[in-house]
Amino acid sequence: MSTFLAAFVVLLLFFLLMSVGYIVKKKAVEGSCGGLGVLGIEKACDCDNPCDARKLRMQKEQERKEMLNQNRII
């Protein structure tokens, strides 16, 4: 029984650490192969005009990329 509890605590600890890392990075979760981005697909739907929330996310992502490029060391 103690082995089970120890394994369960370790598993919970890993989940906690992974969730903290996800929250801190504020980055979308991606698969190891890159998901739809590898195929050149920007969005999952086929609509021509993205919704307002998507436009806001795209704008924030673009601003973040520009800020990172400005603050590059190399």
TrEMBL record:
Highest taxon listed in the record's lineage: Bacteria
Record InterPro entries: NqrM (IPR007495)
Name the record gives this protein: (Na+)-NQR maturation NqrM
Organism whose genome encodes this protein: Shewanella saliphila
Lineage, top ranks: Bacteria, Pseudomonadati, Pseudomonadota, Gammaproteobacteria, Alteromonadales
